[in-house]
Fold these 2 entries.
Entry 1:
Amino acid sequence: MEYRKLGRTDLDVSALCLGTMTWGEQNSEAEGHAQIERAKAGGINFIDTAEMYPVPPRAETYSKTEQIIGSYFQQRGDRADWILASKIAGPGNGISHIRDGQLKFDRQHIVAALDASLKRLRTDWIDLYQLHWPERPTNFFGQLGYRHQDSDFTPLEETLAVLDEQVKAGKIRHIGLSNETPWGTMKFLQLAESRGWPRAVSIQNPYNLLNRSFEVGLAEVAIREQCGLLAYSPLAFGMLSGKYEGGARPEGARISLFSRFARYTNPQSEAACSRYVALAREHGLDPAQMALAFVTAQPFVTSNIIGATSLEQLESNLASAELSLSAEVLAGIEAIHKAQPNPAP
Ligand SMILES: NC(=O)c1ccc[n+]([C@@H]2O[C@H](COP(=O)([O-])OP(=O)(O)OC[C@H]3O[C@@H](n4cnc5c(N)ncnc54)[C@H](OP(=O)(O)O)[C@@H]3O)[C@@H](O)[C@H]2O)c1
């Protein structure tokens, strides 16, 4: 396993990060714990969660994922071996069960969310505390282009000042952004630098063969500002494994279970996906491993957040860290991307 610096910190995170958002819904506590152990044995030292998880968010399961991680730390006592990332939820539909439902990145919400996460995670500190998505209306979660909407939102200055207090109190070590745009990222970085507030060390956005929109405006920011990408959904919800080929809906798999997860199943995505899967097979590669290796190898990626619902998947995904794609395969990927760029933004 390769390790990479997290932003300008002194932390070295594994090039693969363990995603957790199925634990408490598709996966039990015991399965979550087994995944953590297997990931650790494979060299992973970086784990990503969120107050909102598991997905899809429901009042009945709210915050179970953090509880599962917390019970692991309590039982194994190895908290200090991990670089732990969590997130505070912003405003959105279908999450009225989180705090008072009127979510904001202001003092009241940040302090309440962070204290509750620390308690569930059974730890005194979170290494990377991320804003899950912008509070302001902008283009994320499947919206490619920006359409302006006037609306009030918590000034970024207030958000950063409160986060600064949490860092000084020792509750968080670093802050990160997620589902951010180039404007938001640069604004947070500039404010932090000019006011001495914590500087975001990473940006967690979607990045996979069906959605490379990060390359357009953010890859340059990530490299020049040393605010690297933590790539999420590297398999486009499992699509890039090839198991949904020809409209198949395997039992128990995410897209079969939850019809609202339609981000990667539009006709253009399915067509592009088939081409990537065929390319992998032509070269004797496992399609999921090819898709993961492509993400991990990008120079603007700090860590690739893998997700799994079984130890077999986790095993195979871990092995992708050792796979380096040939020039021929990379040329094949570029040809498909050129013909069908970003079918699932
Ligand atoms: N910041 C954000 O807004 C955000 C959003 C999404 C995710 N995330 C983070 O990123 C992590 C990963 O995201 P993701 O789960 O969407 O990643 P993903 O890699 O796109 O999808 C993972 C899912 O694909 C299936 N899968 C995984 N490996 C497979 C394999 N080898 N063969 C066949 N199927 C396989 C599994 O689902 P099934 O078994 O159900 O098919 C697994 O849960 C999350 O856990 C979370 O920590 C963050």
Note: The pocket of NAP is lined by residues 19-22, 26, 48, 132, 178-179, 204, 232-238, 241, 243, 253-254, 288, 305-309, 313, 316-317 (CB under 6 Å).
Entry 2:
Amino acid sequence: MEFLDTLKARHSVRAFDSKPVPEALLQQILQEAALSPSWSNTHPYRLALATGPVLESLRTELYSRFQRTIALQRGGKLKQLTGLLTRDPGIPDGDVKPVVNYPKDLQGRRVECGKGLYGVLGVKRDDLKARDQAMAENFRLFGAPAAVFLFVHEGVGIYSALDAGIYLQSLMLAATNAGLGSCAQGALGLFRSPLDKHFEIPKQYKLLCGVALGYELDVPVNKFQPEKIAARELLLPAKTMR
Ligand SMILES: Cc1cc2nc3c(=O)[nH]c(=O)nc-3n(C[C@H](O)[C@H](O)[C@H](O)COP(=O)(O)O)c2cc1C
């Protein structure tokens, strides 16, 4: 694909065909994404590629743990406290603290995105159960036959996330170019211990997020196109010199 076509064609896919992706194709896009730049060429991130029985095991465990998370969330303060004390599997054990209170200045775009997504899913804003269910689909990886989990080196702080972000975009573009759909998933940063069961993850590498990969289903949720931001909104106004 031409670069601009690829850039425009990439979009978040939230419903996948179960058809497996050939291992060679997955390795190819991981290698293409490794063309990404990184600070001092260090690539301070590592990847866990899950397919087949490992992915099925993760899907089952992540989904059931998130169902417990919902039960705790909806069960009130006492239930949450008991959950904490009893080490309930619904209590997140991810490395990065999830954002609970979104900054006010970002909230508008976040709400618009959520509204649009729930709109195509036919989920009403006040239907908590349906919203929880839509969120829970993250933990089934939206049915994807492959997933990559990204871990960043804690030793270089926020810069490892910067480099991993560059890799993530390259990976999603390489996937698009190869005819694959993808969805970056911050939600997959919620639980680390299920990944420790299946992969040798050095302690200094912290789980950041996941990305679902596979063949896109032709369904409305995959047609959802949140409005892109205008570059002028990103540009800071210059101060006038006196
Ligand atoms: C780092 C990152 C984390 C994300 N986490 C999630 C997620 O947990 N669940 C989800 O459905 N989408 C997630 N997304 C997808 C965004 O919602 C999506 O990129 C955004 O709405 C723009 O839509 P587009 O990807 O179709 O262009 C994430 C995207 C990024 C870059």
Note: DSSP finds nine helices and four strands in the chain.
